[in-house]
Amino acid sequence: MEIDETSVHTEFDITKDCIFVKNERLSETGLIENAAQACSAIVGQSYFEDDDYEGEGNNLVGYISAIKKVEVYALPKQGEIITTKANLISRYDTGVITICSISCETFNNDELIVACTLNFLIHEV
Asked: What does the alpha-carbon distance between residue 17 and residue 51 come to, in Å, rounded to a whole number?
């Protein structure tokens, strides 16, 4: 929905064929993966050209290097659309890899369902 150099706002439609759906709800693992994907967009975008909408200009690998904090308050249902907002806390670039820390919150109908802080290691392959 929105992205800049230090923040991102995404939406995720929870479909029945999502591998993280169990008993018609998005699992805790799915919520963390959703947060990680949203967070990685902040730093990951700097590895691509502005007009590379398909992401074909680079090949990145990213890892969650630490889950510093995660609080899950509710599991959303299949068919719902959740929104995730993330903000860059810190970033260190070595020229080969990027190490960063990002805070993230996920909402279901304006209700906070996940709050987390994740560390990432991102590099080109």
From this structure: 31
